[in-house]
Amino acid sequence: MRHFLADDDLSPDEQAQILAIAAKLKEDPYALKPLAGPRCVAVMFDKPTLRTQSSFAAGIAELGGYPMIVDGRLAGIGERESVADVARVLGRQSVAIVWRTFAQSRLEEMAEFSRVPTINALTDSYHPCQILADLLTIQERLGRLAGVSFAYLGDGANNMAHSYLLGCATAGMHVRIGAPAGFHPDPEVIARAGVIAARTGGSVTVTESIAEAVTGCQAVATDTWVSMGQQSSGRESVFVPYGVTTELMSHADPEAIFLHCLPAYRGKEVAAEVIDGPQSVVWDEAENRRHVQKAVLVFLDAAARGVEVEW
Ligand code: NVA
Asked: Where's the Aspartate/ornithine carbamoyltransferase carbamoyl-P binding domain (predicted)?
């Protein structure tokens, strides 16, 4: 059974295929109806959500299916009943499980015991659906992915940084993480991204130097300095120099675009003039969540049924 638990679950060819399906579905939202019936997809959240719940619900409906929204905290996954038992139950009610939770190991356990594809809707370690949306957005705006220099500034140890490393390396991009000491990505993820980049012609840089990260790059991204489940007290001041201001953007390519997965905190990780200015593509990113997630569902459902995606 194929799952989508981390960005490097997709080969470069598979990632490109999913982005192509997403672009086609963006043009023609009802072109593919693999969930017609409707077939149910379980969509569960242990953490807050806006874009993920709404984009999965809308996308599943457009594919002809029914989004079965399950409140993970009400279900008490891993407490009231084990992750394995939840996987067994939902696998009998749905054709795919979409889950936002805390530890990546919980999602991996869900996948292990699920007889349907399991999709990562954000964990503490990765946010791979968001990175696909960002890649589609970059492709739309810059016309290519391979060879694009991409900088992410801020908390280099969070889910977005890890997913950018893996997802952008898979796309053959030059991914640069600019983060303060103590907030660099997991060395194991950096190593995985490095191996992928060596194959795709991309590269991976992790640096404390803002100039090294940003100079000449064609896309700049950031994320909240306090991720869901973290305590804000005391951790924000170290990130202040990495805030994306117009001054920081001036070191990037003059045509560079600005990305943010949202929610955004204006005046903290990004200045209002940047996120609300002409270089910002954040609303395209938010919309593209729906298109790429539909493509992931189409791809994994076809794999589960042992058929080719017809499109
Ligand atoms: N790093 C953020 C991403 C939100 C979409 C968090 O985990 O809260």
From this structure: 2-140
Q: What's the total number of domains in the chain? A: 2
Residue 79, C-beta contacts closer than 8 angstroms, at least 6 positions apart = none
Q: 119 pairs with which residues across the strands?
A: 4, 98
- Is 244 in the same domain as 123? no
Which residues have any ligand 1 atom within 6 Å of their CB? 122, 127, 158-160, 223-224, 227-228, 261
168 is catalytic: no
> ipTM, 2 decimals?
0.99
CB contact at 8 A, 43 and 90: no
Residues 89 and 76 sit within 8 Å (Cβ to Cβ): no
Strand runs labelled E in 213-296: 219-222, 257-260
Query: Residue 235 has what pLDDT?
Result: 87
Q: Which residues pair with 4 in a beta bridge?
A: 119
**Euclidean distance between CA atoms 186 and 22, whole angstroms:** 30
How far, in Å, from the CA of 31 to the mean position of ligand 1? 31
Nearest to 239 by CA among 214, 222, 258, 219: 222
Residue 7 within a domain: no
- Binding site, annotated residues: 100, 127-130, 159, 223, 227-228, 261-262, 289
Q: In what order do the strands lie in the sheet with 66-71?
A: 66-71, 40-45, 96-100, 118-120
The closest alpha carbon to 10, from 129, 114, 148, 94, belongs to 129
CATH code (residue 42): 3.40.50.1370
Same domain, 138 and 55: no
